[in-house]
Amino acid sequence: MQDFINIGKRIPKMDAEEKVTGKAIYIHDLKVPGMLYGKILYSPHPHAKILRIDTSEAERLPGVRAVLTGYNTPPIKFGFYKDNPPLKANKVRSYRDEVAAVAAIDPDIAEDALNLIRVEYEILPAIFDPEEAMKEGAPLIHEEHLGGKEKKPTNVLNLPWRLIAGDVDEARKNSDYVAEDRFKVTWVAHCCLGTSGCVAQFDLKNNLTMYSNTQIPSLAQKDYLDALSAMGLQGKKARVIKAMIGGGFGSKLDTYAYEYIAILLAHKTRKPVKIIFSREEEFFATSPRQPAIIHIAQGCTKDGKLTFRDIRMTLDNGAYTSWGATTPSVMMMPISSLYKVPNVRYVAKCVYTNNTWSQAMRGYGNPQATFAIDSQIDILAEMAGIDPLDFRMRNANTPGEVTPQNFRINTCGLRECIDVVAQKLDWRQNRGRRDGRGIGMASMIHVGGGARVYKSDGCGTIIKIDDFGTVNVITGATDMGQGADTVIAQIVAEELGVRVEDVVVTHTDTDICPWDVGAHASRTTFVAGNSARGAAKKVKEQLLEVAAKSLGENPENLDIRDRTIFSKNDPEKKSPLGKILRAAHYAAGGKMVMAEHFYDPPNENLDKEFKGNLSVTYAYGTHGVEVEVDKETGQVKILKYIAAHDVGRAINPMLLEGQVYGGATMGIGYALTERLILQDGKVMNPNFLDYKMLTAKDVPNIEPIVVETDDQFGPFGAKGIGEPGLVPTAPAIANAIYDAVGVRIKDLPITPEKVLAALKEKK
Amino acid sequence: MKKFDYLKPHTLDEALSLLNQYGNRAQLIAGGTDVIVMIKQKKLFPDVLISLQGIPGLGQIDYNGMLRIGPMVTHRAIEKSELIRKEFSALTDSADVLGSVQIRNVATIGGNIVTAAPSADTAAPLLALGAQVKLKSMQTERTIPIEQFFTGPGETVLEKGQILTEILIPKPLPNTGSAYWKLQRRGALDLPILGVAVLLSLDKATVTCSDLLCTASPISTVLHSLEGDEVFCKEVRIALGVAAPTPMRATKAENLLRGKKISDELLKEVAETAAKEAQPRDSLRGEAWYRRDMIEVLVKRMAMRCIERILRPEETIFPVRLW
Ligand SMILES: Cc1cc2nc3c(=O)[nH]c(=O)nc-3n(C[C@H](O)[C@H](O)[C@H](O)COP(=O)(O)OP(=O)(O)OC[C@H]3O[C@@H](n4cnc5c(N)ncnc54)[C@H](O)[C@@H]3O)c2cc1C
C-alpha cells in the first residue's frame, strides 16, 4: 500500500475544540442588528376549513411589527410536489399546518401575539391510515389533486414507483420455498441537537440574504429565488450563509415553511427576521422518517439460491410532499441489489393523510426496506433449513456483477463483512441456543460514489494559496458535523504535500463557494473529495511551474513534501512554499496560484424503468448483534455489536468510526425504542422525555470493522459511509431476538410489550 | 418564560413568613427541576419564587435511632450515602436511576415527593420503608405517614403556607432488606413505566449464608435450601409507583405474606395479588396490561432481591442488570 502522510490518519475534526468549548456559532447564537423574532401559529385541528382569521388584536399588541396569514401573502408553493404554501388559506390539513405568523421585537411578545389571533374553523373528517386513505370515498386531503387514469380526485400521489426485472410470477412458481410477510415501520425523528432556524434579511434593493443551517445551500438558493419570483421580486439575488449546523441527518435536505415565513416577514417589515424552533416544534413541525407498510415475498431454491423478491409498499406521505416522497427510488436499491436476486418486482404508493408529512432521513428509505428484506432472509433460510449465515454467503454480491436494476458493482466487500461478523460472534458456536441469548446479522448496500438523483451530481472546489503558504479551499460541500471539512483538508494536504493545519476550508457562503448539489446520498467524501483532489492537482501543477523558474529545474523533476518544493534529482534545490509564492506575487508580471475543479462522477440517472447505474460504486456492510431477552419482561439488551463496512478506504478512521457509531446508535433506537407517537395526527411525545432517543447509558459497545477495498473511482480509494451505519441495524437485532427466544417482530420499534405479547402467544 | 422575583430567605421562619405573605402568588423552589420546567410549560405562573437553598439544616442526613432526611437533600447525596445504601437500600436504588447525574446533583427528595407525580421515583421506596413526613406552617407542625401525604396525581395534603421540613424513616428490624426496581425504556433520563419497591424482614435472628451454594446460586435455589430453617416473613411492605393515581401500598399482598413461611409459590401468589389490587391504566408511557404483568414479575424479583440482600449483605450490590 502507498505511504500516505495525511490519508488514513486519525485526525480530530477541525471544529471539535470550538464545539466542545461552546464557542462555535450556531444559528441559535446568531444576531443581526435590528433583528425581529418570528413565531408561527399552528392548526389546532388535523383537518378543517378556515372560516375566518382575525389578527387585529395581535397587530395592536405593542412590539408587534407584522402579522401574516395565507390571506395577505403571495401564493408561494414549495416542496417536491409544489403542494405546500408557507401559510395556509382556506383549509388546514394537519396539526402542523401554519395558519399565521408574527414578527415582533422579542420572542415573548411574538408568542403573546399568537394567542391574540382568532381563527374560526369548521372541522372536517380526517384520515390517518394510508390504506384507508386510498379507498374510494375517503376524505380528500387535497380536493384539487387528481390522479389515476381517469384523472379523478385521489389521495394517492402521482408517483407510480415501479421496478420490474425478470419474471417474478414465473420465478415464484419455480421456487422451492416462498416466504410472505407484512412488515411495518413508523415515524422516527432526526433529533438534531440544534433545532431548525434561520434569519432572513433583505437589502435596500430587495436582494435576500438567508442565514440558514441547510445541507443543500445551492438548491435552497434556487428554492428561495423561486419564492422571490412568486413575491414579485424577479431577478433579485438570494445569498445563503450557513452557520455551524447542529445535525442534519436529512432533515435539512428540503426547505420548509418557516424559512418562507421568515422571508415574508422580513420583506413585510424591512427588518431581518429570525425564526428558531423550540424543541417541541422541532418534534411536531419538522418532518420525520416515512412510515411504511411493506408486503414482501421472497423465494429460494432448495439449495438456498434466491429466486425472486416481490414487494408492495404503502407509504404515509402525510398532508404535504417533500423530497421524502422519492425515498422509494432509493428503496429500489436494496430491493433490487442486496444479495443476488434475479427477479424483482417493486410497487410503491405514497398516500396523502392528515398526519405529519415525512422527509428524507439518513438512509433515505433504505433502512425501512432493508428491515423487511433482511428479516425475511432469516425466515426464508429457516424454511429452507439453511443456516442464515450460509444463506447470505450463498447469495452475497460480488465485484463485477450487474444487478437487476443495472447497477454495475465495482468493488464489493460484502463477503468479507459477513465473514468477519460471523467470526466475531463465534457464529457456529453461538447460533441457535434459544436460551434467552441469541445472535443475528443483516447486511446492506448503499450508494458509495454519490447518486445521480438530480441532473447533476457535481461539486466544485476553488483552491488558492497566498503569500504564506496557507491553502484556502473553498468548497461546495456542506459540513454538518460529519467532518467534511477535515476530510477535504486531508485530501488536499496529501495532494499538495502540506500539513492538514495549513489548510483552511470555507464552505459557508453561496456568494463565495462553488456550486454543489448538497450533502446527501453519503456523497460528500467521494464527490467533494474528488473535486478537491482535482483542484489540488491543478494547483500543484501551477506551483511547480512557478517554482521551476526560481529553482532552475524542470517542473517534472519537482515535488512538494512538508511545505517545501524540492528537486527529485538534486535535494539541494529546494524552497519553502511561502517563499515560492511570494516570489510569484512580487515578480514583474506576477502570477497568482489558484485553481478550480468541478467533479461530477460518471453516475447515471435512473431511466423510465428506474434502472441505471445510479452510482459509480456501492458501499456494503454487515452488522452482527448478540442480544439477551428477558422472557418475563420482554426487554432486549444488546450484549455485543459488530459493524463491518466496506468503505473503500478510510481517509480518517476516527471520523469514519464516528459515522458508524452514530449510525448504529440511531439504528438501535430505530429498532428498539424510538417512535413519534401520533394519535389522530397529533404528535403525543414532542420531547426527549417521551421520545426515547438512546442515552449514553443505553448505547452498547459498538465495534466498527473497516474493510478496505480501495475503490478505483474514490478519492484515494474511499467510498461513502454517512448513511450505511444505520441501514442493517434493525433487521440484525430482530434476527438476534428471534434466535434468542423464537419470536419474530415485524413491526418497529421492537418494544418490550411486543416481545412479551409475542412470547405469550407462542406459548 | 414568565418573569418572577426570586427570594432567598436564610431561616425557616423567614421562609414561612414569606410564604404566608405572598400566599397564592408564591411558589417554593428547591432544586427547580420540576418548578422551572412547569413555568416554562405554562403550568405554573408564580410571581415570586421562594428558595429553600439558603436555609441551613434542610440538607442534612442524620441517623440517630431514626433516619432523618432533610427535604433539600439531593438525590446525588442519597445515592452516595453508604448508610442509606446499607440500611435503606430501596432508596438508593431509586436515587441511582432518577434522571441523570446532572439532574441528581440539583434535584431534591423534598421536591420529588411534593411534586407527587405518580411516577415519582422516591415515593414507592419511601412507602416501603415506612417513612413519615413532617409538615410545618407558621402556626402548626405535624408528622404524618407518607401514605397519607399523596392524594392524587400532583396532589398532596400539603397546604399553602406549609413546608415539608423532614422525612423520617424508622430503623429497620434486624434481618431486613429492601429493594426498588424502576422499569424503564432507557438507562437514564426516563420516567418509570412502573416502579416496584419491597421491604422484607425475616424473623430468624441469625439467618446467614455460609456455604458455597448459598453465595453462588440464584436466590430461589438458596431459599429452597433454607427451607428446613423455616424462614418466616416477619414484616413486609410492597409499594408501587405508576400503578394507581398515587403511589400505593399493595396491602392485600402484604397480608398474604406477613407471618408466613416464605416459599417460591407463596411469593408468586403475593405478586399476583399485588397485580390484582393495583389499578394501572393505559398511558403514553405504557399499557395497563403490561404494567399489571410487570407488577407480578417485579414484586417477586424485588422480594427475592430483599432476601438476597439479607443473606448476602456484602453484595448490597447495585445491579446494573435485572436478570
Ligand atoms: C431531565 C429531568 C429528568 C427527571 N427525571 C426524573 C426521574 O427519573 N424520576 C423522578 O421521579 N423525577 C424526575 N424528574 C423530576 C424532578 O427532577 C424530581 O421530581 C425532583 O426530585 C424535584 O426536585 P427539585 O428539588 O428540583 O424540586 P423543585 O422543582 O424545586 O420543586 C418541586 C415542587 O416541590 C415544591 N417543594 C420543593 N421543596 C419543598 C418543601 N421542602 N416543602 C414544600 N414544597 C416543596 C416546589 O414548590 C414545587 O412545587 C426529572 C426532571 C428533569 C428535568
Summarize the entry for a quick read.
Chain A has 763 residues and is of the alpha+beta class.
Give a structural overview.
- The complex is a heterodimer of chains A (763) and B (323).
- Chain A is an alpha+beta fold.
- Chain A has three domains: 16-23 and 458-599, Aldehyde Oxidoreductase, domain 4 (2-Layer Sandwich), CATH 3.30.365.10; 31-124 and 196-276, Aldehyde oxidase/xanthine dehydrogenase, a/b hammerhead (Aldehyde Oxidoreductase, domain 3), CATH 3.90.1170.50; 292-452 and 606-762, Aldehyde Oxidoreductase, domain 4 (2-Layer Sandwich).
- In chain A, helix 9 (327-337) runs parallel beside helix 10 and helix 15 (524-551) crosses helix 16 (577-586).
- The relative contact order of chain A is 0.13.
- Chain B has three domains: 5-51, Uridine Diphospho-n-acetylenolpyruvylglucosamine Reductase, domain 2 (2-Layer Sandwich); 61-170, Uridine Diphospho-n-acetylenolpyruvylglucosamine Reductase, domain 3, CATH 3.30.465; 176-317, Enolase-like, domain 1, CATH 3.30.390.50.
- Helix content of chain B is 35%, strand content 21%.
- In chain B, strand 8 and strand 9 (155-156) form a beta hairpin.
- Mean pLDDT of chain B is 92; it is low at 316-323.
- Chain A binds chain B through residues 108, 630, 632-633, 635, 637, 673, 677, 684-685, 688-690, 692, 694-698, 751-753, 756, and chain B through 1, 100, 183, 185-191, 284-287, 290, 293-294, 297-298, 321-323.
- The site of flavin-adenine dinucleotide has 30 residues of chain B, from strand 2, helix 2, helix 7 and strand 10.
- The oligomeric status of these chains comes to heterodimer
Report the structural category of chain B.
alpha+beta
CATH class of the largest domain in chain A: Alpha Beta
Radius of gyration of chain B: 20 Å
Q: How helical, in percent, are the residues of chain A?
A: 25-40%
Q: Tell me the distance between the termini of chain B.
A: 45 Å
CATH superfamily of the largest domain in chain A: Aldehyde oxidase/xanthine dehydrogenase, molybdopterin binding domain
Return the CATH class of the largest domain in chain B: Alpha Beta
Distance between the termini of chain A: 57 Å
Tell me, rounded to a whole number, the average pLDDT of chain A.
96
Q: In terms of structural class, how would the helical and strand content of chain A be classed?
A: alpha+beta
> The CATH topology of the largest domain in chain A is what?
Aldehyde Oxidoreductase, domain 4
CATH architecture of the largest domain in chain A: 2-Layer Sandwich
Shape of chain B: globular
Question: Are there runs of chain B of 5+ residues with pLDDT below 50, and where?
Answer: 316-323
As a percent range, the share of helical residues of chain B equals 25-40%
